[in-house]
Design brief:
Length: 109
């Protein structure tokens, strides 16, 4: 069931919606795996920004309040850099593009 829902998310929406989902996905990747400065900026965007975040989510065809609620749940569980092995975090850049739409799959967006 999970795999089939991931495939539906991947191909859903217009080109513009997919573009804005990619922006959100990149922010999620930077929040979780990025260097500290990028992680802090991404966290500020994902949790504190009320104008741009809502506009980006709306353009992506997503409910900003629902996404933020899910992200707060993830953050409360401590799923961020602490759960990623040190050897992965120590690399300059983690290439998540090999796994396709990683952020969309992992966060159900």
């Amino acid at each position: 069931m999970f795999k089939s829902s991931m495939l539906q998310i991947q191909d859903k929406g217009t080109a513009e919606e997919r573009l804005w989902r990619a922006v959100i996905t990149k922010s999620l990747e930077e929040w979780i795996c990025g260097p500290l400065s990028f992680s802090r900026k991404a966290e500020q965007f994902l949790f504190d920004d009320n104008n741009d975040f809502k506009a980006v989510c709306s353009s992506a065809g997503m409910d900003p309040e629902r996404l933020r609620k899910r992200l707060k749940t993830i953050r409360a569980r401590g799923i961020q850099k602490e759960s990623i092995p040190f050897r992965v975090r120590s690399q300059k850049r983690l290439d998540l593009s090999q796994s396709g739409h990683w952020g969309q799959r992992a966060f159900g967006v």
